Batch of 2 targets.
Target 1
Amino acid sequence: MKLISAIIKPFKLDAVRHALSDVGVQGMTVTEVTGFGRQKGHTELYRGAEYVVDFLPKLKVEIALDDALVERAIEAITDAARTGKIGDGKIFIVDIEQVVRIRTGDSGPQAL
């Protein structure tokens, strides 16, 4: 089992959700986050004053998957979230040691 955490641009969420649904992903958690990488923010103009936006708005999409779906999910996220410009995001993959479904007490892959 793996946990995929993808940081994407907010306007790409619908495309990513549909792409993941097409490969068989049944659920996800989405969190609004801010941050920066190589993009290092940008300047904006507000009421005639220029200011620096250091932390850019992003979305963090988290998906717990069986190992068999991981590669297809990564490919789906990459294809759907790519704009070709700096700041498209990152995908992190982490091993999951144990999963427990609270409602039924199921554990392991059955709990996904």
Note: Strands lie at 2-8, 29-35, 42-46, 49-53, 56-65, 89-95.
Target 2
Amino acid sequence: MNSKTKKLVGVGMFAAVVVVLQLLGGGIKFGMFSISLVLIPIVVGAAVYGWQAGAILGGVFGTAVLLSGDAASFMTIDPAGTIVVVLLKGVACGFFSGLVYKYLSRKNRVIAVFTSAVICPVVNTGVFLLGCYVFFMDTISEWAVGLGFDNAVTYMFIGLAGVNFLVELGVNLLLAPMIVRLIKLKLK
């Protein structure tokens, strides 16, 4: 089997894992949204197959989020904005995770993995928050007032994204040593 075929099969397998984890992880919710357990296979796929694969896996993640109904509360407000934000945050987290890994792995693979594992949820959450600001700020302001928050920005960081981000970041950091081992296996 040539290298292109191996890469295609590998990315396809990671994509299947992303879909399954997104659908299974949909039941684990903190607040309005489920925890993104799919960030680990995105980081591993991006590290093993490159930033392009990371972007593809992130796109698969975004598509699975849209199809699973996890973005339904935003879809009723602005469907086009929801699609843009969900797909962009997925593609961006995989792309940047892979890019960071590519450049840092030249110096130190372990640091590259840990940094990529941090970058992935940071970008995912950052693009989500930026998208909330651009597309949904009026609704989020109403939600914030209804829930007793001082302002919409505080609600966005604490109520919408805070706990989810911390859990996703913690899971990535906890599993980063496993990512290092998987990459070493791939490189043998």
Note: The longest strand covers residues 29-30.
